[in-house]
């Protein structure tokens, strides 16, 4: 891994935003069933199905997000940011879910909008850093996400142990996700936005050039390079 990417302002913002998001992201996966059974007296089978609802809607959300991201006029970063805000707000408001029907609605909203954040990661990295840095950047980001994932649920569990209810844990998770989403809006500041638009234009106007590795290009003749670019 090339850790020098961490000093890149755009990638640093992405990493910090992901730290906040993943501190709260898995709280519903870990505690939603227990909250349903312990606080609302919902049967274990029905409570377990809430996680299935998250999975089903998450699958649908990824397909829809992929379709939208393929549209040239759609801003993938904006979809990502709005989806994070909706996910965080829904998690904060989940404390008002006092029956099975409202918990199903929350699980559906969470799964549907959380899908966009996961699905668009590689696209956003590519737009901001370029295709050549995608693999290394995604590896570093996965490392950051993993560390946050390890910390988040135990922290929520400690909050539950001190308060004896799940509301505070879900509120903490929702606030962290919202903060992570808001942090991603910093990526719209002019210097980063200009670089993003430049990289997007390069990818659109000359996609074949991105395929040719610089080291390989040095070994090819001019005629061979032109043949590759014309494909």
TrEMBL record:
GO terms for cellular component: membrane. It holds the Pfam family MFS_1. The keyword Transmembrane applies. GO terms for molecular function: monocarboxylic acid transmembrane transporter activity. The keyword Membrane applies. Keywords: Membrane, Transmembrane, Transmembrane helix. This is Major facilitator superfamily (MFS) profile domain-containing protein. Gene3D superfamilies: MFS general substrate transporter like domains. Residues 10-231 form the Major facilitator superfamily (MFS) profile domain. It is a multi-pass membrane protein. InterPro entries: MFS, MFS_dom, MFS_trans_sf, Proton-linked_MCT. It comes from Octopus bimaculoides (California two-spotted octopus). Its main location: membrane. It comes from the Eukaryota. The chain crosses the membrane at residues 6-27, 47-65, 77-96, 103-125, 169-189. It is found in: Membrane.
């Amino acid at each position: 891994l090339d850790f020098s990417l961490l000093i890149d302002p755009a990638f640093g913002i992405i990493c910090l935003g992901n730290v906040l998001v993943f501190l709260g992201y898995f709280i519903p996966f870990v505690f939603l069933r227990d909250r349903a059974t312990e606080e609302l007296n919902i049967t274990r089978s029905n409570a377990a199905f809430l996680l299935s609802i998250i999975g089903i809607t998450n699958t649908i959300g990824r397909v829809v997000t992929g379709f939208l991201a393929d549209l040239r006029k759609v801003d993938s970063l904006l979809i990502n940011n709005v989806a994070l805000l909706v996910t965080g707000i829904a998690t904060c408001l989940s404390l008002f879910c006092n029956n099975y029907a409202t918990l199903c609605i929350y699980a559906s909203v969470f799964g549907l909008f959380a899908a966009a954040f996961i699905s668009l990661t590689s696209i956003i990295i590519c737009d901001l850093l370029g295709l050549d840095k995608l693999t290394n950047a995604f590896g570093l980001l996965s490392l950051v996400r993993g560390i946050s994932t390890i910390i988040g649920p135990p922290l929520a569990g400690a909050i539950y142990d001190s308060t004896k209810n799940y509301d505070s844990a879900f509120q903490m998770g929702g606030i962290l996700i919202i903060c992570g989403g808001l942090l991603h809006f910093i990526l719209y500041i002019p210097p980063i936005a200009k670089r993003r638009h430049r990289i997007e234009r390069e990818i659109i106007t000359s996609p074949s050039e991105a395929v040719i590795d610089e080291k390989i290009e040095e070994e090819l003749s001019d005629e061979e390079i032109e043949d590759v670019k014309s494909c």
